[in-house]
Amino acid sequence: MINLNGNIVENEQATITVYNRGIAYGDSVFETIRVISGKIMFWEDHYFRLMASMRIMRMEIPENFSPEFLEEQILNLIKENLLENSPVRIKFTVFRKQGGYYQPETLDIDYFILAEELKDPFYLLNSDAYEIELFKDHYIMSGLLSTIKSNNRAVNVLGSIYAKENQYNNCLLLNENKAIVEALNGNIFLVKDNKVKTPPLTDGALNGITRKQVISIIKKMMDLEIEEASISPFELQKADELFITNVIVGIQPVTKYRKKEFGAEVAKELLSKLNVKARLA
What we know:
Layout: E1 2-4, E2 7-9, H1 21-25, E3 28-36, E4 39-40, H2 43-56, H3 67-80, E5 88-96, E6 109-117, E7 131-140, H4 154-165, E8 170-175, E9 180-183, E10 187-192, E11 195-198, H5 209-219, E12 225-228, E13 241-246, E14 250-254, E15 256-257, E16 260-261, H6 265-280
Parallel strand pairs: 7-8, 7-15, 11-12
Antiparallel strand pairs: 1-2, 1-6, 3-4, 3-5, 5-6, 8-9, 10-11, 10-13, 13-14, 15-16
Helix pairs in contact: 5-6
């Protein structure tokens, strides 16, 4: 079952026009959300990021788009799919209504919500080999637009194909200044001694929900220091650890980049604290 503009419909009945602006122009934003036993993890952060993304895209926010209304829409869809006692992955997509070319005829929006069952309720540390490489064919442009989750993800798609063809688990993306921005599917963190470093949003990094939570956790730890600063590719092989964050996997340690192999002690400690925070959120 799918929620299409507030109506619960069967998958086969959930259709959109070929003139959909999300398809035609990438005129769309989305949120990927994790729900555990009917509780939306970090819902306030997701809600405000969605509202901020819609404002950046100059979309008209409907009057009924309150946190309570959207939460109800998500939880009702989970109930209709009989997933109330399961961990669930939600994709909430907003797109501008049909009409116009580059210049839209209206700023009003439509939306749909998808629900998919996940395997594990909380985050587990993946200790399998996880090798990464740089993707240098195309760049993420620094600036505000790169920080939002729009459905214009061509660089991520091409980078994912490159990773699969070359048997890497993931790739790191660069901006036009050749600074590391993020991984294909999440934010990147670098650990060196007692300092944890992650690219700033001004470099084009996604304004990730888990990124925000990890930064908050580190700020409260006496033995670690967090720094939001540009990362050069030359820093990677000098790091003690690298890890990737997103709302579905939590924290994914990187085990290898080129000839350098990494540990995961800090990632393991942070993942434990992230799970505690998720339970209390």
